[in-house]
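Morning. Coffee machine broken again, so started the prediction first thing and wrote up yesterday's gels while waiting. Chain of 268 residues, entered below exactly as on the submission form.
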Amino acid sequence: MKKIFSLMIAGVLVLTLNHNVEAKGNNEKAGSVLTVGATPVPHAELLNLIKDDLSAQGITLKVVEFTDYVQPNSALIAGDLDANFFQHIPYLDSNEEWSAKLVSAFGVHVEPFGLYSSKLKNIGDLPNGATIAIPNDPSNGGRALLLLQSKGLITLKAGVGLTATPRDITGNPKNLRFRELEAAQLPRSLQDVNAATINGNYALGAGLNPVKDSLAIEGADSPYVNIVVVQRGKETDPRIIALKNALLSQKVKDYINSHYEGGVAAVF
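Came back before lunch.
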């Protein structure tokens, strides 16, 4: 009887040991997965480019694509993502919850913001009373108005900066009208307005090249560097460091230079 009891205890110990080993293996495997949310162009494209580089380091990169600018931050705060790659610092800072809980890990590139039209060839052809579509989020809406001001189309209140809205316009010689839309909808709005200011990633996704197709484009001094964002305190996670080294590589810079024809500019 004692022998049978001893064998039973031994069996339990073996099962417990196997369970602990399996759990440890699963935890190690889970830790090697890096889930990053991104908008399709160019962010997801650049991430997919480095999957093999991270795999060689034992990290499985999972790219989750989003088509809007709100869900990636919500998903990151909820813990559904380890990082996201789609935004710039002015956009991150435009929401108190985001800026309190999330932080930039590193910058990668700039996507020149431009004014586009399917009806006009030159910015000087904008008619009196023209309707221009702009992003409806605070940071990108202000970015659009600053671009228009730099081209002499409008004048904004002194010192209004990146958070400008149509209410801050003090001079409007062409009596331009503004239609505020979600950034992702702007390329589709071109048929309904005289012109639209479009973020670089959405312009590229719609087959528009910011350098070749825009009526006006930001200068090289744009402060809107696209960043990889993580939860506060996760900036030194070894997987994030590996992601940084892979994205800020000559391989990625060469890809950017050869594929986007100036529509994306590396900052490293």
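The longest helix spans residues 2-31. Going to sketch it on the whiteboard this afternoon.
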